[in-house]
Amino acid sequence: MFRKKINCRLIAAFAVLAAIFLVACPNDDSEPLEDPPPSPLVNFKVNDAGNAFENTGTNTEVPAPTVVNGEFKTVNGLKVFNTGGTKSDTQSEIPWWEGNYWDDYTDIGYVDLGVATGNLLGTLESFTIETYLKLPADAQVDRVGQYVWAFADQIAPTNAVWLNYREFTFLIKDAAKDPTDESVIAGWDAASPLHGLDTWHHLLVTKDSTTAVIYLDGEVVVNGPSTYLTTVFASGTLDTNYLGKPCYDPGVYDQGLFGTLFYSFAIYGEALSANLVKELYQDGPINTLRN
Predict the structure, then answer these.
(1) Fold topology of 38-290
(2) What's the pTM value of the predicted model, to 2 decimals?
């Protein structure tokens, strides 16, 4: 009888240990757990008063950006920035496409991201840049100069990092390494069905030491090799930095993003995984903005 009681107690103890082991060590077929997205280093959003941007990121040394022209407005309870602008009665002929014209605009607003933001980007070997935007239904996305954001050393730059909405082009230009551009390009045909004008989009770029990936609404648009690093840029090199404005003089091509709404602009200190990008899109404000 005594021996039976011991056996029963041993069996019960082993059963408890087995249950603990199964909970602590799931089988190999289970989905691996992934940490939540990190907090952005800078996160520029319109303040609650709806009259300026503020930086809610972890790097508080980077000041909030300033705006030139444009206006602030409220969309479904969320504060956003509208680049605005006025469409002129005139049009300019496209030099390389005779007989075709683009509308002319004046007073298009933009966000000056500031030198400190460019200096921060220049310290990152890997990064993610995220924004929410909405282009108007009559946006001419086939024209040159549709820069979502740009970091540059000057107007008509020799060193730059930018994202262009027209071709979903991410580019790093490093004059010291190579006078030619290094780009990741989706191309007109591949990108145009994804533009989706007159609706809000989550647009994001990840960059590590070898690869860049462009995501639209949580899905990969294009990826490719990108070995140039922003860490080659000395402090103060990227001092011409804009959201919604190209790093070129206004002209036939580079008139900025007319009537475009921006909710936020954020920089993360690492290249986020595809799962984390999708999580940001699904858990972010996109549904509120679209409703």
Answers:
(1) Jelly Rolls (2.60.120)
(2) 0.84
